[in-house]
Amino acid sequence: MYTIAIHGGSGTINRSEITPQQEKTYRQGLEDALDAGYNVLARGGSALDAVEQAVRSLEENELFNAGKGSVFAASGKHEMDASIMCGQSLKAGAVAGVTNIRNPISLARAVMEQSENVFLLGAGAEEFGREHNLAVEPDDYFFTEHRFQQLKEAQESNKTQLDHSAKKKNTGKGTVGAVALDKDGNLASATSTGGLTNKKYGRVGDTPVIGAGTYANNETCAVSCTGYGEFFIRSVVAYDISCLMEYKGVSLNEACDLVVQDKLKNRGGEGGLIAVDKEGNVALPFNSEGMYRAWRNESGEGEVAIFG
């Protein structure tokens, strides 16, 4: 049964601090991305195409911290990360610290399919993107006023912060991602982010790290994570869920609960993830106050949700 799930980030998302109009706008952004991916699957397209299109939609929506809506790094630039993985071939592509690339997820896919590499960084990744004719945008394409205010607030307190922390809790929501199962039984996952506001020293989180923020394997599941990346890297979260299913034979829901609500939480990690298994079952666990999420399957079942 073909299925897709997407997320637009997790964190401190309080119903009392979001206006009805804001909620409506966020939900519409999730619906648009869900439609973009689902329509690929409904036409018989691949899971890989579906997750790329869903994430591209989120990257082009300034509400979400990826692509156009990315937060500012300490350098005053937008340093974006993304990765994608094919569950059938176990091939993957990832990029980190790229600037001016309109759709980092498409660059990650190009790395996977058109190079012998898995992971490209910074200027080299951008050069690869130009050689493969990926769309590039000027700095002002990525400029949004509320992101700039977030940077100023973070610089005033000399802190690096999650996009949903501090004063502007509901202005854009962290990492974005998608997971899908297509009609041929192939799984895929994709994740993209602008990272942390005011991040320094070329910091990279879990998003482009295969096995930490993104993983897909036709034998088990596809996973895309969102939260404080350092904890997800240390716990190898995405791969851990697949491992529990492969080696212990537990269900998707059991694996997700153990990792997100027990292991990750006990280590101080806040966040969540989306996952789909080879049967089309969906899990969307999070240990934060909310997670921007949506899913839909071939039978028309699904939801769009924000709060816990």
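Above is the first protein from milestone M3; the second protein from the same milestone is given next.
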Amino acid sequence: MQSQNAPITRELFDQVMVPTYNPLAVIPVRAEGSRVWDQQGREYIDFAGGIAVTCLGHGHPRLLAALQRQAAKIWHLSNVMTNEPALSLARRLCELTFAERVFFANSGAEANEAALKLARKHASVRFGAQKYEIVAFEQAFHGRTLFTVSVGGQPKYTQGFEPLPAGIHHVPYNDLAAAEAVISERTCAVIVEPVLGEAGIVPADPAFIGGLRKLCDRYSAALIFDEVQTGVGRTGELYAYMGLGVTPDILTTAKALGGGFPIGGMLTNAALAASFSVGSHGSTYGGNPLACAVANEVLAIVSEPQVLAGVRERHRRLTDALRALASRYEVFDEIRGRGLLVGCALSERWRGRARELLHMGLEEGVMVLVAGPNTLRLAPSLVIPQADLDEGLHRVERLLARAVNTL
């Protein structure tokens, strides 16, 4: 074991941390805007955004000011007390979305846990205990609690944790007929990502989403949109549902909501919210004043029309450039996604090697993500400067040239 005065290294992780992650050797220590520096002072263009979290880049002055103002006032309140920053943030969310009621948590998993519990509780209260089944989609990801990992459609995340919660059905994404075959009077909720994230950045077909809305209406089931990754401007709309013409009954939000400060939220209407009585759900840190103050400023910025228009314009520039690179180097066979959540699907000869390309990207000075073994994922800041976008793309080209030369 290293002493407290020893340098922090990747090896220390293996000595002191539970091995649920396998982090890279690069250790970032400073960041500003869309640029990050590691312990050795090497600079990277950030196309990863902390997995779609740092939506306004690093060290945004308005977020720093909001945090500092609140830090000088009060850091934490239990939910025994009324909380000014939480109520201010909830009011803004209700003004900007379909929501009439908000519940705050600390993460996307907790927000989804609350959404699924609310759907089951509402169905039980209104229709009876037999209405408890949940329909979800293969390859989806909704979090790491036992309930949310069971609802997520990736068996690798549930192995060894059985027995799992019952009454959950998985069907193929974008397959309305398959969903219709399992949704019934016993269904209390259908949960769906507007863009399938961890399985390759696959956008939902609008007809598929519209069909789910009709099925939920027919069977009195709650339609839940998991917008943990797509929310807060990521798709070019404040929330992705706004561009699909379909309003959910429950929406979950996290990741970008705090711009890097941990916070999650569940949004719903008053009728469903009423099924959660006092004491039926809760969170010690949910609605933390520091988190809510920062999130309120994030929403104030991202909801500005020029910011959302900028996301759509950056999407066009980014995807046009990536398609040109795909044609030149033949490493990608499809560029897909919405806004600044972009997936680069690997061509046949590169399938299964996404993580190798991620490592090459770091060596070329650009941070990217993977979305499964066959897709590179890009989720840069929503306000990334054009110069940084261009430089990042230049480094992606170097990555692709290097990859082709080493094949």
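Note on the second protein: The chain is about 40% helix and 20% strand.
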